[in-house]
Amino acid sequence: MCAEDEDTLQLLSQLVVKVAFAEMPEEVVEALRTGELAALRKGDSDVRPLLIGASLRRLALRALCRAKKAELTEAAGKNQYGVGRPGGASLFGKCLQAQAELRPNATFLKVDLKTAFQTMDRGHAFRAMAAADPEVASALAKWYGRPAVHLWRNATGKFEEVTSSRGFDQGCPLAAAAFSIGQRTALDDFLQQLLALDPAAKLYSYLDDTYLVVDSELAALALGGLGKALEPLGLELNPTKTLVWSPAGVTAVLPELRSCYTAALPVLGAHLRTQGDAEDAPHFLGRGNGGLLEATDRLGKLWENLQRLQKAGLKRQAAGALLRTYAGPASQHALQLTLASDAEAYNYDCALKDAWETLAGRGLGETETLRLELTTKLGGVGVQWASSRKNAAFWAGWTAVAPEVQADLDSGTLADLLDSLPSAAAQLQTARDGLAAQGAPVAEGAALSNALDFHAKQRSFLNVAQKKTHAAHMQRLSTEEKACFHGAGGPGAGGFLQYPDDSNCRMEDELWSTALRQRLGLARAECNHRQLPLAATTCCNKTSGGTACNAGLDETGFHSTTCQSGGGVMRRHFNLAAATAGLLKRWTHESPLLEQRVPTWDRPRRNPGRADDPLERALLDIEFTEQSERRWIDVSVRHPAAGTAADRARAARKPGEAARRGEKDKHERYPGPQLTAFVVELPGRLGGEARQFLKDQVQRLPADQWTYELSRAYRVISCTVQSYCARQLRAGSGIR
């Protein structure tokens, strides 16, 4: 609403500024400073307190941090990777990996602080922020200049008051910058002292996570010095959680530190979590695998949770959407930080494939696995296999941060960087060769260092590879299969795979699995693995007079989805019209008319029989008013493999041909601009007029609703068509 109304937007902007700088009555400020505390699990024996603050406070302070991003990033310093650094987590991991290769005999210290965010002396942060940016310092002082009272819900459900007078509230947008800037001076001074003893020493911070890389003989001294440097800030090392590691093994570590030794050093556990993870997801230095093994374990745990939720009532459609959303990001950091082996990627993909086989209710072969991976616009499902992404993720992850790793290692050029890191260089060359094998070569003929200087996003490599995979797959299909596969692509065609926001976007479990199997090209998609051996061979549909169709059933479901007996075709048509009318009502708040006769388009019937009405009456699916003019919509669902051999050949050559043929037929029957031919191909592709109609209607809404409403419209249409297509497939085989 604000984007449409400049006055409202201006008022909101003024309000955000006033809230950010606490320029409000004192009682309002106090109310906004109060929040509810929640405890998040931190490891096996600790909790992380999180403040659930007022939405208006979060909005205002987040806006302030974004406006001051450059100033806050500079104030946090080059050793801080958690404030304003694009790809900071990946860069953090790459720098530590580089140090492990560059200094194999050094000691790596992972330092844990006791409740760091909650115990820091705010005065240090106030002074540091004042020097960095007086405007942010003013806001920080307003929100944290005096104690606040928060609320904690105890086991009985009653609230208890908790006074906060130190540190910063985790959950507050200002907290990360305030903490990081507050500790910068102490860490910088400490590092300068350490550099005098070990010129190659490094300190890396990601918010309250601090790592030291130092000569092994100086490790104990460095650890003690860091503790003393942080004491004036009110911060205390947690010796029970301090970890020590060396690429050379435990023998390279000082005896007095060996009790803290770990065979694999975790990096950024909490900051690499994916939404859906029940626990931290660290990357490990010192492990033979690159982290994909742990990602595979987490994927298995998520799938177990989704299966439990399904038993409790979660729709299969929702479980599939959540799995599809989770599986890619869950492995992303592991694939970016280390080039996964073929075996690791295979194991991850097997776990993911097993889950999709359960959802589909059938085993999946090579063709179905390929279609699972292709994007929905290419007719697939959009499942992200690790084996297909590992080269692109590793290469793109490196090219995004290579200049900064080069600067961190004081390498003159990227070639010098690669010379100093032969293991990383070998992995990069392997990834580059892998991309070339996938059909997405990088800077052909150029040296590795020159190719590394060219950054392209991971998605660009995957798009090229997927288009080539799609083209190769099309070559193996028959004319009819090509037409149907084209019909499964395009915007919105896979909308039924998205999370069901409401009942209009929701499918019953068996119908959804049937639609999924049909999209994957499985033979006799109406049957799960138990039903397949007993599948009917002739059509079970009956006419209104009770006569069975008895036509032979084909493996692709063509007959079942086009059979005129049983009423399935008409039900599919009527429900698509009703769904389209429902969208119009939602957007215009007016109820369109259904099944309306338009005498203007009546015409003499061609070659009428003796019992036929000589007049072919024009009966349109939807009538509505737009800008004081009457308009009509006539819907149609077209099978891409229907029609003459020439029609099928055209549909096999060019995506959307079946829909265009349907639109042409509609306009020949009902000439004039008042008609919208709303044609959907049975596998899901919307015709050009249907897509344009939805876009035109959505763009009459406030701009901030366009994206969601168009996405929802695609889902509504997709779920309607696929639900009734699945019903037809099942009815043809006599499956309820």
Query: Order of strands in the sheet with the most strands?
Result: 2-1-4-5
For the biggest sheet, the summary is: 4 strands, mixed
Q: Provide the residue-averaged pLDDT.
A: 92
Query: How many strand units?
Result: 16
The number of helical elements comes to 27
Low-confidence stretches: none
- Tell me the β content: 5-15%
Commentary on this structure:
This protein is of the alpha+beta class and 736 residues long. It is built from 27 helices and 16 strands. Strands 2-1-4-5 form a 4-stranded mixed beta sheet, with no helix packed on it. Strands 6-7-3-8 form a 4-stranded antiparallel beta sheet, sandwiched between helices. The chain has a 4-stranded mixed beta sheet with strand order 11-14-15-16. A hairpin with a 2-residue loop joins strand 6 and strand 7. The mean pLDDT is 92.
Looking at this protein, list some descriptive labels.
736 residues, alpha+beta, 4-stranded antiparallel beta sheet, globular
Short description, anyone?
The protein is α+β, with helices and mostly antiparallel strands. The protein is 49% helix and 12% strand.
